Amino acid sequence: MKMNIKEADLIFLSKEYMTSVYEMEDILDLPAAAYYHFMSCEDEILYVHKAGKMLGVCSIGDLERFYEENQKELKINQQYTFLKKIDYRMAVEFFEHKRTINEIPVMTDENELAGIIRYEKEEGLRNKQKRALKYARAHAWHMQEIERFVCKTKARVVFYSYCHTKVMKHLSEQEIGILKKRREKADSGICADRLGLSKEEWRKFYQLYYETDIVETMISEMDLCRPVVKNGITTFLDMDGKYYHFKNGYRVTPNNPAGADRRIIMYGPCIVVGGYCKDESTIAYYLQDCLNENHDMEWKVLNKGMYDPNLCYGRMFGEELSANDIVIIWCVKKPKIDKRMRNVLFQGDLTEVFLEIPSLTDNLINHPLHCNHIVNQKIAERIYRDFCREKVLEVPKNSSAPEKIQDYYIRWDVHEYFMGYFARYGLHKENDKSLVGAIVVNCNPFTRGHRYLIEQALGRVDRLYVFVVEEDKSYFSFQDRFRMVEQGVADLVGVQVIPSGSIFYQKILLPSILKKKQYRL
């Protein structure tokens, strides 16, 4: 389809008005700087300079590929298209050919950036690019965390993944349409209590497990599966329902043998925990069945999956594991294995399991990871065959003591908030050897006493950050307090006043003061 871009739609923005020009000397972390720029601005290309000279460009697509492919270094593209003068006709021709790009640089005869010609991109396409970039960055971060876990744990590790693209390509257009329609119904609120499936579709999904009230009961019990967070590590509250049972923070596997002293521990998203399935139809349950039948009841399978992918991997870091334990990690994509990861036994690909199931959509809700007992059983049987082939269960037990890597975890969403906060106020640029200090103030209102304390702190450091508590729980509003602090220290060289964001709260920092009727700090 031809794009209807006209010369009148284009504008020229000269270099001095551009926010997308970066000096390499000022960037401590180029991928992070590029990410937060693309997510907060409408620019889709960074123009990277070194010693004042144009080095190359980095597009939003370049950055997405960097994260998707888990590259070690974000390379600057030095082979980019540009114009040698402000020529709107040539720019239109370029945009017609490169439909995902909405700007093109204009270079001088001395090969210096003069500015860019651009047009306003359709908002839906821009948001789609940002979502894809955000997903790629989150995925890359999770993969790095998995690698960090493997390098630090004593347990032996097995990775499993599947290729979502291959599974979806295997489906017919009609089957893909069915899954899409279910998602749309659920998202729109139509039949939301049934997740977009008709009564007949639910019958096909549960098959022999189908009961009159199974859908309503299953969904209501899922709503009661409350996660709790302690030190950033998420577990489940104990629960004793009809279909769902949780104990000691994880889902019960009913056929665990009482005397088993060796563990296979499963981590991963909803398919691992067994959403929409009974305790007796999870992957862990079927794998335990295979072990009970063939291995003298010495192994027990623990289901430590979580419904939210953002939460499912952090549990591993707070787990007490030994060399006698086998850890199964369900990954979105295959991690890159290097020589540091010596305790990885093998990687398994479960794509074929999905492809071999007839009428696959009858066994799914709206996604391959939202599946029924048929898929779970096939996956468990495949895992067991892999374990037998690789002789995973034959390693003799040793005297290794269980250890945890750490007793806290910083989740992706928390990490992302802080990284965004640092980037927003330039805190990520602290790459020199200056002595830096920070103080937190409420200033309700700003007084000469506050000024004195700030001067004293500044006298001990080269640069001082003053964080103003960002809450409206004082007599003066945050905006008024922030303005007073800014004006009160405007003449002090080396002081930067910053909103505290969600980092500091009055109820944490100033509990005794908040009990008073008169605020004087």
Give a concise summary:
By secondary structure, the protein is an alpha/beta fold.
Describe this structure in words.
- This protein is α/β, with parallel strands linked by helices and 521 residues long.
- Helix content is 36%, strand content 17%.
- The chain contains 18 helices and 19 strands.
- The strands form six sheets. The protein has a five-stranded parallel sheet, with helices on one face.
- β5 and β6 form a beta hairpin.
- α2 runs parallel beside α4.
- The termini are far apart.
Shape: globular
Distance between the termini: 63 Å
Number of strands: 19
| Helix fraction by DSSP (H/I, runs of at least 4) | 25-40%
Rg over CA atoms, rounded to whole Å, is 28 Å
Structural class based on helices, strands and sheet pairing: alpha/beta
pLDDT < 50 runs, ≥5 residues? 508-521
Strand order of the largest sheet: 14-13-15-7-16
User: Can you summarize the main beta sheet?
Assistant: 5 strands, parallel
Kindly report the average pLDDT value: 89
SS summary, helix count: 18
Strand content: 15-25%
